[in-house]
Amino acid sequence: MIRTRITEMFGIRYPILCGAMMWICKPPLCAAVSNAGGMGNLTAANYETEETFRAAIREVRALTGKPFMVNVTILPSVRISGAHHKMYLRVCAEERVAGVEISGSPIDKACGPEFMEMLRKAGVRMFHKVGSVRHALHAQEAGYDGVYAAGIEEGGHPLNDDVTTMVLTPRVVESVSIPVVTVGGIADGRSLAAALMLGAEGVMMATRFMATQECRVHDNIKQEIVRRQEQDTTLICKSIHLQARALRNRNVEDILAIEKRGGGFEEILPLIMGKRISEAWNTGNVDLAPMMVGQSVGLVRDIPTCAELLERMAREAEERIAAVQGRIQ
């Protein structure tokens, strides 16, 4: 059994957390990860009203008695406003969820320190996903309970500092005293063991959870993830200051072509709209939208249940750690 500050903090079996995924991290997958011994994720931006968001939290609780995280991404959006961000945080406090994963701007700057105090009083653990030491230090000073150190390998929106997981994790670990969770390039027991050796208290992964039986995306998407390799992702939207890592497909090539010739936000926006991404997940059209996956796609080779995946990862990590210890004279 691998025990860390993360497993102790939340009372979970494995130090493995599911990351936020738009249109994917809904109650069934969230509960499946938590029931498997990890930490499920409910992505708040899937819900535009307080009623539907609160109902989703309660649906997760009907499916599992285990703790889970709620992601709140505080980035510019045409659909989700600052009022939404504050509502999500308030409801998380009222519902006393186990923890919140904050991406983008920190709570204290975007919503105000009173929202951090509200969450703290409700016993909600606060984690901020960061891509640099300076942001990790701010999170610690602001009163976060931990940070996710997200390397450039991750899918979604890595910080444009472009620091790799191998360097970022130990740099953040040596710079803060709060627990650090490694993000980016994590998909199996080997990468879990590596993160622990770098000083992390756990790992967060998203791409790997897309290719699980409980994930409700079209099978074409899952098969594409299994088929693709680590060199098949690329960074897009750098020119409009919304850097993202996505799987190379027709949509991504169109975005890169627009950026190359100097096209702006208005021309790119229709290609990255949330509605388009949701349609791709549901129909299995792998060329319709940007598929935000990380370089860990090269380590995904099957479609297990969440329980099978987490048990296998923990066993592999323990075996790798024991093997290394056996080499030490």
What does this structure look like?
This protein is α/β, with parallel strands linked by helices. It has a single domain (5-217, 299-326), classed as Aldolase class I (TIM Barrel, Alpha-Beta Barrel). The protein is built from 15 helices and ten strands. The chain has helices at 5-10, 27-35, 50-63, 82-95, 107-110, 113-121, 133-142, 165-175, 189-197, 207-210, 219-227, 250-260, 265-272, 274-283, 306-326; strands at residues 16-18, 40-43, 68-74, 99-104, 125-130, 146-150, 180-183, 202-205, 233-236, 244-247. The strands form two sheets. Strands 1-8-7-6-5-4-3-2 form an eight-stranded parallel beta sheet. It has a two-stranded antiparallel sheet with strand order 9-10. Helix 3 links the parallel strand 2 and strand 3. Helix 3 runs parallel beside helix 4, helix 4 (82-95) runs parallel beside helix 6 and helix 9 packs across helix 15 (306-326). It is globular, with a radius of gyration of 19 Å.
What's the total count of β strands? 10
The secondary-structure element order is HEHEHEHEHHEHEHEHEHHEEHHHH
Q: What is the typical, i.e. mean, pLDDT?
A: 97
Which CATH first-tier class would you pick?
Alpha Beta
Name of the CATH homologous superfamily:
Aldolase class I
N- to C-terminal distance: 24 Å
Q: Segments where pLDDT lies below 50 for 5+ residues?
A: none
In the CATH hierarchy, the architecture is Alpha-Beta Barrel
Strand order of the largest sheet: 1-8-7-6-5-4-3-2
TL;DR?
It is built from 15 helices and ten strands.
List key phrases describing it.
329 residues; two-stranded antiparallel ribbon; 45% helix; globular
